[in-house]
């Protein structure tokens, strides 16, 4: 069976796209992408071409672009090109070039696809890429998620050559006289992927000629096992995870520690927050202390009362909110409503307090508490107590501590440790005629 027929059969079996679909083909000018373009074009699909010039190889980069441009003119194909600026190219060379180039490429596809008539973007990944990725991730110590196979469909991305062997692509190019350009940087071993392709896989194929097929099969098997694992984890999640609009709660941790597969379960429960196995092991260690903090790139977690509390990372704001009059004030953690009342005082709770109206010196201020803050809590005969000590006494979590707000008057005396303690200085008495009602409605 010809490679064109194999590709068409694969497209139909996996329902990659309809025959009527318009395809945006990512084409570098190299053999793989030129073969993909030739096959899809000759199979009768409506295609457009996207070529990105990273400006990394001087004249060679420009000649690649010129080559793709000539091909598109010859076959009357719409071509979309992008050249990186000098600043972009310089940033590209700082760090992991191949990963940065991929990010730039996919970001461009995000912007480009909606302004074309195309339905999907086709990428020329094949079995060789699957095998390389498998080995590269294995050498980096990846888990099953990193070792799973490249997907033939992901969002708007389609990979019609994914289960094609590189030798078949090479054969097609020779048989059909498909012109292409070699990127000479692919023959150097400076980059890890090139080293694996040029040395490791070549050596493996000398001993095991079917090495690429076997590595592809292994990656596909891990994908299937991972699908089953994810299904079982999804069934387990309600037992261990509680979510609100503010945070995710994992636990009880004591039960998870005693579970035969506790560490594996814990990892799969919170891996999407950026935490790895090493962190999960620390979280579940019986020697880890209450209040311990764990950080990922985007999230922060803390141990509190046998649970792990996880929130998206945000910068603490120490800005001051000025309240000039009776009003409703929206805060990052909820809403504060101040109103005047002169009826009998009732409904007092931690979230609702009453103070003497004439004891307040306006304007009022709200800010997060700071080290050294003190308040004169009710019942302490006018003695002051550190806010930090009150929070410790109440055993608040790290997140509650970070977000705790105080209400002050214009002399900077704390009126209310919001939602927790009222100052003796501002309390009402039997002679009070007019009150300020303070109501705090925390976000759910």
Q: Averaged pLDDT, please? A: 91
Tell me about the largest β-sheet. 6 strands, mixed
Poorly predicted segments: none
Distance between the termini: 61 Å
| Share in helix | 25-40%
**Computed Rg:** 31 Å
CATH architecture of the largest domain: 3-Layer(aba) Sandwich
CATH topology of the largest domain: Rossmann fold
Classify the beta-strand content into a percent band. Answer: 15-25%
Strand order, main sheet: write it out.
3-2-1-4-6-5
Q: What is the total number of structural domains? A: 3
Kindly state the number of beta strands.
Answer: 22
What is the CATH top level name of the largest domain? Alpha Beta
User: Would you tell me the structural class of the helices and strands?
Assistant: alpha+beta
The rough form would be described as elongated
Write structural notes for this entry.
The structure is a single chain. 39% of the residues lie in helices and 21% in strands. Strands 3-2-1-4-6-5 form a 6-stranded mixed sheet, sandwiched between helices. The protein has 15 helices and 22 strands. The protein is α+β, with helices and mostly antiparallel strands and 444 residues long. Helix 2 crosses helix 8, helix 6 crosses helix 9 and helix 12 (262-270) crosses helix 13. A hairpin with a 2-residue loop joins strand 10 (299-304) and strand 11 (307-312). It has 3 domains: 3-220, HUPs (Rossmann fold, 3-Layer(aba) Sandwich); 244-312, no CATH class; 321-442, Phenylalanyl-trna Synthetase, Chain B, domain 3 (Phenylalanyl-tRNA Synthetase, Chain B, domain 3). The mean pLDDT is 91. The radius of gyration is 31 Å and the shape is elongated.
């Amino acid at each position: 069976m010809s490679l064109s027929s194999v590709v068409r059969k694969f497209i139909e079996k996996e329902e990659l796209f309809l025959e009527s679909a318009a395809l945006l083909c990512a084409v570098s000018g190299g053999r793989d992408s030129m073969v993909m373009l030739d096959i899809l074009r000759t199979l009768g699909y409506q295609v457009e071409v996207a070529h990105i010039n990273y400006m990394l190889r001087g004249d060679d980069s420009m000649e690649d672009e010129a080559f793709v441009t000539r091909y598109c003119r010859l076959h009357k194909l719409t071509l979309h090109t992008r050249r990186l600026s000098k600043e972009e190219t310089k940033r590209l060379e700082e760090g992991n070039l191949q990963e940065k180039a991929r990010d730039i490429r996919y970001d461009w596809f995000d912007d480009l696809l909606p302004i074309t008539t195309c339905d999907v973007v086709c990428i020329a990944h094949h079995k060789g890429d699957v095998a390389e990725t498998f080995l590269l991730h294995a050498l980096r110590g990846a888990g099953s998620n990193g070792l799973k196979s490249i997907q033939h469909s992901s969002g708007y991305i389609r990979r019609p050559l994914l289960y094609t062997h590189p030798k078949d692509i090479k054969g097609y190019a020779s048989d059909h006289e498909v012109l292409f350009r070699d990127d000479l940087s692919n023959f150097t071993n400076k980059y890890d992927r090139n080293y694996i392709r040029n040395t490791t896989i070549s050596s493996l194929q000398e001993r095991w000629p079917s090495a690429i097929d076997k590595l592809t099969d292994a990656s596909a098997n891990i994908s299937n096992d991972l699908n089953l694992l994810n299904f079982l984890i999804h069934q387990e999640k309600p037992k261990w995870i509680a979510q609100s609009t503010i945070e995710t709660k994992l636990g009880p941790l004591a039960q998870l520690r005693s579970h035969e597969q506790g560490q594996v379960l814990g990892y799969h429960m919170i891996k999407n927050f950026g935490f790895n196995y090493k962190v999960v092991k620390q979280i579940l260690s019986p020697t880890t202390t209450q209040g311990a903090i764990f950080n990922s790139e985007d999230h922060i977690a803390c141990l509190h009362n046998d649970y792990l509390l996880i929130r998206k990372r945000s910068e603490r704001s120490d800005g001051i909110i000025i309240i000039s009059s009776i009003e409703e004030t929206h805060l990052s953690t909820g809403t504060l409503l101040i109103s005047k009342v002169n009826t009998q005082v009732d409904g007092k709770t931690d979230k609702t307090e009453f103070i003497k109206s004439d004891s307040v010196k306006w304007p009022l201020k709200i800010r997060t508490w700071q080290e050294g803050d003190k308040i004169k809590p009710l019942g302490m005969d006018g003695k002051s107590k550190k806010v930090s000590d009150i929070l410790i006494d109440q055993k608040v979590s790290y997140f509650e501590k970070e977000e705790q707000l105080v209400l002050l008057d214009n002399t900077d005396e704390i009126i209310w440790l919001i939602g927790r303690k009222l100052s003796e200085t501002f309390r009402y008495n039997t002679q009070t005629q007019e009150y300020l009602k303070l109501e705090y409605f925390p976000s759910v």
